[in-house]
Amino acid sequence: MSTTYTLDTATSRAHPVPEPVRRLSVPSIAARKVDGVTAEPIVMLTAYTTRMAQLLDPHCDMLLVGDSLGQVIYGLDTTVRVTLPLMIAHGAAVVRGSYRALVVVDLPFGTYEVSPEQAFTTASAVLRETGAAAVKLEGGEVLAPTVSFLVERGIPVVGHVGLTPQAVNALGGYGARGRSPGEADRILADARAIASAGAFALVVEGVVEPLARTITEAVACPTIGIGASAACDGQVLVIDDMLGMFERVPRFVRRFDDFATRIDHAAKAYAEAVRARSFPAEAEVYRPKP
């Protein structure tokens, strides 16, 4: 989806960009990979709110409204408990806050696995109600017919193979996948099947590094790694992990900042100012007009 926005600079915080901006499209992302080579890696981060989307949009090619919001925002133990209304609400918020990046929304567990028809009903509702450009779904060969069904009906799809968090109960945890030759072969077959079915990009999560390289070489669409390999055609991280909001993160996360400590210091300074009655100061209160 390619959309041009003309923004009113006199409106609210939600519309800070003064000039028309053309959003990146699904074909433009897919075209990054030519003859197996991606000269410009794809930059993706998760976003769950309008304000975060505004901040990330200038720097990212794609914004993923991940079902990881269940854990990051709502404190759920797994993504399995995330609902479709939650994904739609946050997806719409991210679309409202972004003007350049292509927005992708996760389909939550239980809303697409029964049949291609169920997946189409869910995915079409997500695109219609959020304004996002694409959906992402987890799974391998068994879901290839569903991916094909969606793509043939005009719904762009990002696949997701390897460690698939929605299947955590079946996998028995969040450990790296593909360590055994048999499991590596299955994941490679999954990647090939989803790519061949028409996915325009493929998230490869939590697999051993050589397998991620092999998958990237084996599929025509761009791969986006998370806990995979620098050889992937792009990378994605959960924004809160990347910003250092949590004490414990997977080994594949690099903390590019320490927001948790900075927020702690700011909250402490605020509390001290309130208790000392130094906030609000004269410049921060209203006085009667003369």
Write up this protein.
This protein is α/β, with parallel strands linked by helices. The protein has one domain (4-260): TIM Barrel (Alpha-Beta Barrel). It contains eleven helices and twelve strands. The strands form three sheets. An eight-stranded parallel barrel has the order 5-6-7-8-9-10-11-12, surrounded by five helices. A two-stranded antiparallel sheet has the order 1-2. Helix 2 links the parallel strand 5 and strand 6 (62-65). Helix 5 crosses helix 6 (144-152) and helix 8 runs parallel beside helix 9 (209-218). The longest helix has 17 residues, at 259-275. It is globular, with a radius of gyration of 21 Å. The model is unreliable at 1-12 (pLDDT under 50).
- What proportion of the residues is helical, as a percent range? 25-40%
User: What is the CATH-assigned architecture?
Assistant: Alpha-Beta Barrel
Report low-confidence residues grouped into runs of 5 or more: 1-12
How many runs of DSSP E, i.e. beta strands? 12
Secondary-structure element series: EEHEEEHEHHEHEHEHHEHEEHH
Count helical runs.
11
Using the coordinates shown, work out and report the CATH topology: TIM Barrel
